[in-house]
Queue: 2 jobs
Job 1
Amino acid sequence: MGLNQFSDRNGRHQHENGGGSLNSSEDESYILDNASVASNFSDTTAEDPDDAAALADDQLEEKLSELIDGMAQKSSQGRVNCQEQLVKAFVKKYMPMFIKERYFTICDNIERSLKKGGGAEKAAAAELATVICVQLGNDDSTEEIYKLLKPVLLTMMCDTSVAANIRAKCCTALSNMTFLSGCEIGDVILLMHQLESIFSASYLKGDGGVPNITVETAVLHAAAISAWNLLLTLVNPADIDAVINNEAKRMSLDKLSELLESIHLEVRMSAGEALALIFELGRNYDEAFEEDFAMDISETLKQLATDSHKYRAKKDRKQQRATFRDILQFIENDTVPEIQVKFGKEVLVLDTWTRRKQYEILCNILGPSINIHLTENELLRDIFEIVGPPPTTDIPTYAQSQQERSRKRALNAANNKARTISRGKNRDKRSDF
C-alpha cells in the first residue's frame, strides 16, 4: 500500500449527528477545538495564557466526562454519538492521564457495546478501544484493556453469523491492540493463525480456480490479511520460516502468492504487502532467503505492476501499479523507496516495509493528528525509535501541564479523604459523651 494513501481518511471520522448526549454540532465543535476555547478564556477571564489554557483544559475534561457517562445511556444512537465524539477528541488531543483515571469505566462501556450493541455501535466501540490503547501506550493498563476486550473481539471476528464489515472491524481492532499492548509473541502467532483461517477462503480452489467471493467478503479478507501483516512486523526474523512454512497450518509462500490472482484489488494489494514483509524479515536473517521463489514470483509482480486491463477501474489500475512497482523493486533489488515524514522540528524516516506498515496503521487510527502523537506520545516515539525528548517549544501547554494538574487532583483527593476520616473520628468521640 502506498503511503500516499495513508493519510487519506476518506472522512472516516465524519459522522452525522443524531440523538443522545452532547451530539449537537455546537457541543462537538466546543469539545474538539480546544484552541478556540483557550482563546475565548484569554480574552474574557484570564490575562495569563497558562491560566487560560488550564481553564480550557478543565472545560474540555468536563465535556469528555459527560460523553463517557453518555456511553451508558439507553439510546443506542446516543451511545454511538458519544463513542464517535470521544474518538475524535482522543485522536486530536494526547491526554493519557485523563483516560487512565477513567479507563475502567470506558472499557466497561466498550465491552457492553461490543456484546449487545448493533452494528454501528460495535464498530464505534472497536474504534474507541484502539484509540484508548494508543493513548495509554506502554502503561500496564493497556495490557489490562487488551485482556478484557480480546475475548469478545475474537469471538465476533471468527463468528460467520456476524456481518462481514463488523468482522473486518474486529480484525483491525484486535490486531492493532495486540500490536500496541506488547503482548507475548505466542499470542501474536496464535492470532495470526486465526486471521489466516479467515482469509484462506480467498486461496485458489482445489481445481486451481479463483474463488468467487462478494465485495463484502473481500473487504473482510483484505482486513484480515492487513491485520496479519501488522502482526508479522512483531516476529523475529529468525522465526519467519516457522511462521510461513508451518506444516500444521495451510500458510505458505505459495498459498500467499495465490491471493495475487484475486479479482479484488484490496486482497491483491494486501497480499503483495505480505510478501514484501516476509522477504524483508527473511533477508534480515538470511540474505539468500527463498531466492528461487523470488524469481518465480517476479513475473506475476511485473504483470501487476504494468496492469492495463480495461475491465479494472482506472484509479484501481494506477494504485495497483504504484504499489506493485515498489514491491517488485524490493523483491528484485532489495531496495525500499525512502519516505520522510516531517513533524514539528523532527523528521521520521520510513525506509523499511516494517516501518511503512506500522506507520500506515497508526495513520489509519490517528489521521492527520499523527503528527501531534509523534511529538508527544511516548509509545509512538518508542515504536519508531525517535531518540530524545521532543523540542519543548512544540509541546502545547495542555500536554505540559496535564501531568502536574493530575498530580494536584490526586493530592487534593487524598487530603479530602484524610479530612473526612479525621472528622468522622471526631464525631465518634463526641458521641461518647
Job 2
Amino acid sequence: MTENKNNVCYVMEDGEMDVQIKQTKAQPEQSNNNRTNWSNGQCVVAMPGYSVLNPSFDMSLCRAKLENDGFQIPEEDMEAPLKTALEVPSVRRYMVFNSALFHFLMAPVLYLVVWCAVFSTLHIFITVSDYWVLCLSVSLVSIFLTTAIVFVLHYSNKEIDMNLDVRLIQVNERLVKHKLLVSVADWVQSCAGNMQLYFVYWDMSRCLKALTETLEERNFVGNDTQNKLKKKMSHLVLVTEETAVDLRLEEAAKVATNYSLVPDEALPAQTRAYQLLMTYSAAYVKLLVSQRLSGPTHHRLRPRRNHCTTAPLCLCQYIKKQILR
C-alpha cells in the first residue's frame, strides 16, 4: 500500500507492481488457453441492467460468463467492491437521471419549456403584427438553446464522472490483477436505453511501462508536469467513509473524508503512473466501448506504441493527451 501526502491510499498488494510489468503466475491450463485469445480493448462481458429505472446488474451471471472465458476472480475482487461502488441508492438514482435515455426523453420537454418561456417573454415586450413571425423566431431561439444544453450534457459525459468512474477506481485496482477493467456505459439505440456493465480485457504492463518512462523523462522539466496534474485533476476527490468512535457516547459513527486524487510528486514515477492509470481506467473504458475516443481511425495513422488494437488511443496515450499535454 502506498500513501501520498494527501493520505490517499492506493492498495497494491505484495508483488502487484511486479504483476503490472511481468506476467502473472500460470492459471489452470484451460483458463490460460482461453485468455491468450484476448487482446487489449476487447470486451469480455457486457451485462445489461435489469431495467431503466433499476440500473443494477446480475453479478452471479457476470461471474459465470467470466469463468466461461477463463477468468477465475475471487468474490472479494469483483462482487464485493462492485456492490459497494454501484448498489448505493444515491448512485442508482444518479445513474437513472444521468442516463442517455433520460437526456433523450428530456430534450423535447426542455424544448417546450424553453419555447413557452421565450414566447411569453417576447409577447409581453414586443408587439408583432404577423403572429407567425413571432412563433418562428421563438422556435428558432428555442431550438438553439435546447441544442446548446444537450451538447453540454453530451460533452460532460466524455469527461471522468465523479459519481461513477471515480467510485470504480478501487474495483479496477483489484480487477487489473486479473487483466480486466470495468466501467458503466450507456447510450440510446433505437429509441431505447442501452446501459451496460462492461468488462474489458486489458494487460496493463505495457501502458504502465510507457507512462512510467514518460513521467521519468518529464522529471527533468521541473514542476511543469505536476502543475498540469494539479490543474486538470484538482476537482477529482475520492470520498470515503471512516468509522470514528466517540469515547463519551461509546458509539461508532461513519465520517466522510475527502482525498485528492492528484499523485504526490514525491512518489516514484512508476507509482504515479499506476495511480494515473487506475484513476482514468473506468473513464477510458466507457469511451472505448461507446466508440467516443477521438483519434485517427485508420490503422496506419494511429500513434506509435498504441497498446490497443480496437481503438485509436490506448489508456496511457489517452492520459498523455488529456492530462499531460
